[in-house]
Batch of 2 targets.
Target 1
Amino acid sequence: MKYYSDKNRNLFTDFKTAVLEGLAPDGGLFVPDNIPVLSQSFFDNLHNLSIGEIAFEVLKPYVSENMSNDVLNSIISRTFTFPAPVIKLSDSLGILELFHGPTLAFKDFGARFMANTMSQFIRQENRELNILVATSGDTGSAVAHGFYGVEGINVYILYPSQKVSKIQEMQLTTLDKNITALEIEGTFDDCQKLVKEAFTDKDLRKNLPLSSANSINIARLLPQSIYYFEAFKQVQRNNNIIFSVPSGNLGNLTAGLIAKKSGLPVKKFIAAANSNNVFTEYINSGQFIPRPSVKTYSNAMDVGNPSNLARIDSIYRKILGSIREDIYSISFSDFETIEGIKELKEKYDYLIDPHGAIGYLAFDKYEKDTDDFGIILETAHPAKFGDVIELNTGFKIEMPKRLSDYLKAEKKSIKMDKQYDSLKSFLRSKKK
Ligand SMILES: *Cc1c(COP(=O)(O)O)cnc(C)c1O
């Protein structure tokens, strides 16, 4: 499999380079050159396969140029270590729970696969790699946990002091081994600026191999298509499956579209958005007008310029008619989000988080046929958004043990001012 840059269909590279570089030399995102269609026997046999076996069959053609089957299997066995169950609420509705990983959000799937893949590639070359990542909360913890204990890779997470939630902070600062949390006296933007400065500092990079664990890395995207197959397997209703995907940067949606192009019989994808609805407007009007993001209750979807739109456009060769055939999109306000949480709880006694609630509302509004079956992607555990839910609905949420355990652990962070020189001398002191 070759990967091209979305900015230039003639600029190709292999999987390994795409993963280690993250971005194409022209600044574009890597897109698979073709999406292999899975055989009929794969689908006939799907109900007998575990999630790991599905992952192996689906991912093999994307990585085989740089990876043996054994290596792929070992990466999969370290990635797909938790289930993705569909909870059936009625004859026409199910919830795909993607929060059973270590940080209780779907980003665990992609972050773990990327971490294990990078580790594999640098070990072959006997290299060390240092990952710098700025976070405003959730991405940092998924990335940190993905790389936790992974050989040959040191991770430095920069987060703004006092500006992330207690749980988020504990998820970032209670890991040890190869993970170091840098608590920056500044804002998220300051953290991002520091990371950018480090990447453009030739003097530093001469001696210290740096990489980013960017959300647009192709190794984060591909494994996200696996749980669409896994969900389909669990409901087994051919041709009338509709996935409702709470969307921000459109990574999850893009992974679903790849699954469909591989032959998964999905009738429609719903891109469910909050007030940051530039993609909804694109689907409806054909105009893409990026905007600064606004803050909402479903904050992981507060994106004003979704990067994966470039990949969707590439896969569909920018033909809006075909995009619309596969995707319907609609957006909801914070007020509606809360109403959605209440409605689902009252109707089905199921407590959903604000992101999943938007998925639920979108499927509810979608014009359905009688034998349509909707699968809502529940992208995070509601306890991660306990404050918002409790304050607005009065519903109490029991904290899962793996979340409450973080609060008992010891916080370890290195406090640092926002001057680049402080970061630089710290990183230099780490050089072997
Ligand atoms: C990241 C995230 C999203 C948005 O996913 P995209 O792939 O960026 O569209 C939705 N919900 C939660 C909980 C997230 O963390």
Target 2
Amino acid sequence: MIFRGRAGNIRATRRHPSGAREPSDPAREDDLKAQLKPAIAPAWSAAESAELYGIKSWGAGYFDLSDDGNVAVSVPFNGARARVALLDIIAGMQQRGLAMPVLLRIENILDAQVSLLNEAFARAMSQLAYGGGYRGVFPIKVNQQCQVIEEIARFGARYGHGLEAGSKAELLIALASMEPASGYIICNGYKDTEFITLGLQALKLGYKCFFVLETPTELPIVLETSRALGIRPMLGVRVKLSARVSGAWNESSGDRSIFGLTTAQIVELIDALKAADMLDCLQLLHYHLGSQIPNIREIRSGVLEAARYYADLRQEGAALGYLDLGGDEYCLDVVEAIMSVLDPQGIAHPTIVTESGRATVAYSSVLLFNILDVTRFEPGQVPPPQPKEHELIGNLRDTLKSVNPRNLQECYNDALYYRGEIRDLFKRGQIRLRELSLAENIFLEIVSTIVRRLGDVKRKPPGLDGLEQSLSDIYYGNFSVFQSLPDVWAIDQVFPIMPVHRHTEQPTRQAIIADITCDSDGKIDQFIGSRGIRKTLPVHPLVDGEPYYLGVFLVGAYQETLGDLHNLMGDTNVVSVRINEDGTFDFVREMSGDSIADVLSYVEYQPQSLLEQFRKTAEQAVREGRVSVAERQAVLESFAASLRGYTYYED
Ligand SMILES: *Cc1c(COP(=O)(O)O)cnc(C)c1O
């Protein structure tokens, strides 16, 4: 039997411990209170929740739990930290009429990550007496949103942090967002004459704009355009990695990598540049390690290979001064590895460039949504046997009675068998719906009894793997996986997700999360726990009349523009906050999500003509006497209001 609905208030049961009380004289009452104190104090603490959800391991210090049970954002200020509860930010959103779901951006975190990266390299370089400098660039494709790029450009200027552009559109963003002197612009991706012309003209304005050659065919276009404009380019070359890496993106390494030039193509490039008297234009070596490399040994081996290319290209006469390594973690090892190759050959240390995307922006965004409803898979009370019950139902009852720790697998198999038989009888019209429903209920009671007993056995029968999950709740969230968490659906990415409040109560339910797209892929059923991936998320029972909010964390990279309009769920509302040193916060930017009219126009409908068409239908109904004029007005107003409305569930 499936129960859909809201559960009782767990607070009410815990705050009133059972046991007789004798309310007599006040002194005794106080005594009694003192005695009861341990029972009244919450049986669950925020610290236990912190452990359960692993927030310390993925929160990077930006997210933690306050003692009063709230997930808080914590950002650094001159050695100290300022903290704000997400629930307080949600309250601020509500006051401003911004409905759930909302994508929350925390600008301080973006700034902090840019600082962290630049300062980590600065520290490593000074510690190792490295002769070159460091320049980070943010790959625009990781989050192209104007608010994000503007903030990186503004805050990053103090470090000379630049942007990486992989297309013409992204080059336009880079040029418009940065001052010429503030940082580098690294152009990757296929480049046509228009792209190259603009980049060369930007050089004239003082931008340090590198073209990274990814294929041999780009060179003639660059040479021709630069000759025609009389501007010498700043060139880079991307080499194919031979060091194979084992991370998620291993297709981007090895001989079959789709990116970069082979050694033969590099030799041809050098000869062609020499012939054109432009070898001095080749200044940057691009060797993208990717940020998904799981271990330091592979990073080191990649960097060593890159440094070898660098040294040999220098020996060939290229005026290299920049080594672009794509990824960025483990900066001490990276710097050290480069020096270990170049120092013996007396080659000056290059400016190290990295293109850190995910790590720069992931932490700064949180998707917040409310839970709309719950489905529980729980047996109802099993009624006592009736006189003329079908024999198979009796068999199920016997199975239920016989469950014990030694026969769990056997009981489960029996229950499955009897239920199958009963379902067949129903299909053949030999039993009625009420009998089938009774059988299903006893079956569910057997399964939940088995699941309870599983806790008592040392070795779980392998055939019962996943049985617990089959009983977990479904929590329906007001969001779309396809729009807001496309990587959950496309590449099974696991994002940290947890309730943002009520962590002084034990989360007693286990759930998977379904979205509101009514698509069977619109769900989240893998979660981060303190000990690896888990199949259900611990959550609290809903309390009638109280909203329940979940946050999905680390969603600042890639999720926004990869999202799609599945079921015509549009962009969510977006809010950027800045946390102040005194623990207050400001709403610095707000963007309303798509209205229904917006998403309809994306798929080529004209909202105005839809309304016109519908008006004609309604008018016809008036003519035929099926509705009154007032009713016509009411339905047209509903239609128009829906066009203006949010695509998500509105209260
Ligand atoms: C996507 C991309 C990056 C960013 O990689 P992350 O894994 O997000 O850090 C860097 N450089 C290039 C060329 C890219 O295409």
